[in-house]
Write a structure and sequence with these properties.
By secondary structure, this protein is α+β, with helices and mostly antiparallel strands. It is built from seven helices and 20 strands. It starts with a strand and ends with a strand. Bound molecules: uridine-diphosphate-2(N-acetylglucosaminyl) butyric acid.
């Protein structure tokens, strides 16, 4: 394992902004991880582990410690019976290739999350989800290096603190665990309705009535390709804000002022509002902001795009314009989805 010095972090975030890492190392196996971590600890340096950088934004100041880029590869079937299979996938694998691998095995559970950018090890951090699927529904356990205990350990699903687009890995225990693999339990039974509204609409419009992991995967890929930019070509981090959840009374009040507002009840009776709709109403769909070099995607206002921003400062200034306008119009403070590092 080689430790590089003064490496630009721009290519380690699909937003392509930010300063330099003082040190950076590619981690190809568990031994690399332990070695790199001990080296940093011995030199009193902070450590951050990343995957592809699909959901992170680097500060312009960069990072004075060691960035470990997870490239640990490997996929294996751990167990299988008539109903399900248990798959173990190393954290450095590409998420969508892992989805394809499971779909090729005719297994169901993560096909809804086809084409989500990034690595397998990053998926638990924000509990990735799309079209009615969520990582937490299929994850059995994961393996991670615990920097506090200085040891590898297994965390069961219920120990991960999963919630909508969140987990303990990005909240209370941010920076503590370096995930090395995940283990999923996927079903052999094909996916069954009810499906997520826009997915069902697509299936109906295309006359697809044979529901298999493969047909659902293909539908999700087509929907996403039509609506979302490819982060390898257009600099972005996917949805930039989470969908805010408000009290039912607040939603009713908003509905009187804005009858078109879009919201769905969640388990506790509160309402999840479409942030993309709020941002669009605030006048930010498909805008090109000359001042900051930032834009929003024409087909999905929730996606912020770096067109020719010079710095993360530019991005934050553009973000503030959106936050202020949404707050002023709807009285809702939007919350950011990608993490700002360090
Ligand atoms: N909408 C608008 N204007 C817009 C965008 C959306 O009016 O510019 C409306 C849509 O018409 C729709 C509603 O908002 O009625 C919801 O939009 P959409 O179905 O596109 O879903 P979303 O809430 O914007 C969420 C996830 C996506 C995920 C999709 C599909 C969040 C923050 N985003 O988007 O995840 O792919 O649902 O499940 O939860 C991501 O996390 O990076 C991401 C892309």
């Amino acid at each position: 394992m080689r430790i590089q010095e003064n490496v630009s972090l721009r290519d380690h975030s699909t937003m392509r902004l930010g300063g330099e890492a003082h040190y950076l190392a590619e981690i190809k196996n568990i031994r690399d991880l332990q070695e790199a971590y001990s080296w940093a600890a011995g030199n009193h340096l902070p450590v951050i582990m990343i995957g592809r950088g699909s959901n992170i934004i680097w500060r312009d100041e960069g990072f004075g410690g060691l960035v470990m880029v997870n490239k640990i590869m490997g996929r294996e079937v751990l167990a299988e019976d008539n109903h399900s299979a248990t798959l173990k996938i190393a954290a450095g694998e590409n998420w969508d290739e892992a989805v394809k691998w499971s779909v090729d095995k005719k297994l169901s559970g993560i096909e809804y999350m086809s084409l989500i950018p990034g690595t397998v090890g990053a998926a638990p951090v924000q509990n990735v989800g799309a079209y009615g699927g969520e990582l937490a529904y299929t994850l059995l356990e994961l393996e991670a290096f615990d920097a506090r205990l200085n040891a590898f350990l297994k965390l069961q699903n219920h120990e991960c603190g999963f919630s909508y687009r969140s987990s303990r890995f990005k909240t209370a225990d941010r920076g503590r665990f370096f995930i090395s693999s995940i283990t999923l339990n996927l079903r052999k039974a094909p996916p069954a309705p009810p499906f997520y509204e826009s997915l069902q609409r697509y299936l109906d419009e295309h006359g697809i009535d044979k529901y298999t992991a493969k047909t659902i995967r293909e539908a999700v890929i087509d929907i996403r390709q039509n609506k979302l930019p490819d982060p390898e070509k257009v600099s972005n981090n996917g949805s930039f804000f989470t969908n805010p959840i408000v009290e039912a009374a607040k939603f009713e009040e908003l509905k009187r002022a804005y009858p078109q507002i879009k919201g769905w009840p969640v388990a506790d009776g509160r309402i999840k509002i479409a942030a993309g709709w709020l941002v669009e109403q605030a006048g930010f769909k498909g805008v090109h902001d000359q001042q900051t070099g930032m834009a929003t995607w024409p087909n999905q206002a929730l996606v912020l795009v770096n067109e020719n921003a010079q710095s993360t400062q530019n991005l934050l200034a553009f973000r503030q314009k959106i936050l202020d306008k949404v707050q002023q119009m709807f009285g809702i403070p939007l919350e950011q989805e990608p993490e700002i590092l360090p």
